């Protein structure tokens, strides 16, 4: 695997809603199988950036390139087929369907699998996230933590090159957070999927990521290793605060 190959690049992305500039000249590259954290204060523009990458929004300026193609403003279902999957801050699963059926949707919709292949892809993805034993459970009976894991499984089953995680740890307890960290690591290591991970649980990001990107007021203020980011004055002032003495 060529880990240094860039699969996603954002070039000078600007997103404006009327007079409000929410993203201002963002450049960002993600390499194959890289694990990148995306952090910043509330309202910094992280979710909006995901929405631009997945073509929910067409940026007012700039380009999104994925696997060598200009995909700026391409329809969201095409982005998924091309290999970008995502999870949501507010979990979105089909509540009356079982865990396995939910993940099969990812396999069919994202990877274009037929029923037999989709079932196999779903079982493998459920195994990766540790939900095999609950695969026949309707998702309305699952805990928040399991539904977050299920969203990851659904993304993995679509066979993406890049998975976008939007606050997968929100609302989880410490045990569930450790389990989630383990799943994120394995998703990258065992599947070779690049991950761009938005999170307010900064400790987890710093422990696990190769690189951390920091947004503040729609501007990228840092893009470096975790050790460099925690020592960055701009990041301390905008988001992290001074370390405890
Ligand atoms: N559709 C929209 N129309 C107008 N303003 C929007 C829209 N979507 C987002 N915004 C604004 O863009 C800014 C960035 O929001 P965004 O949700 O991307 O931030 P965030 O970094 O993901 O925040 P959080 O950490 O709270 O999830 C906010 O000021 C928000 O109110």
From TrEMBL:
InterPro entries in alphabetical order: AAA+_ATPase, ABC_AA/LPS_Transport, ABC_transporter-like_ATP-bd, BCA_ABC_TP_C, P-loop_NTPase
Pfam families recorded for this chain?
Answer: ABC_tran, BCA_ABC_TP_C
Does Transport appear among the keywords? yes
Q: Identify the Gene3D superfamilies for this entry.
A: P-loop containing nucleotide triphosphate hydrolases (3.40.50.300)
One function term, GO molecular function aspect: ATP binding
Ordered alphabetically, the record's keywords are: ATP-binding, Nucleotide-binding, Transport
Start and end of every ABC transporter domain? 8-242
Q: Could you tell me which PANTHER family the record lists for this protein?
A: AMINO ACID ABC TRANSPORTER ATP-BINDING PROTEIN (PTHR45772:SF7), CONSERVED COMPONENT OF ABC TRANSPORTER FOR NATURAL AMINO ACIDS-RELATED (PTHR45772)
The name on file for this protein is: ABC transporter ATP-binding protein
From which source organism is this entry? Ollibium composti
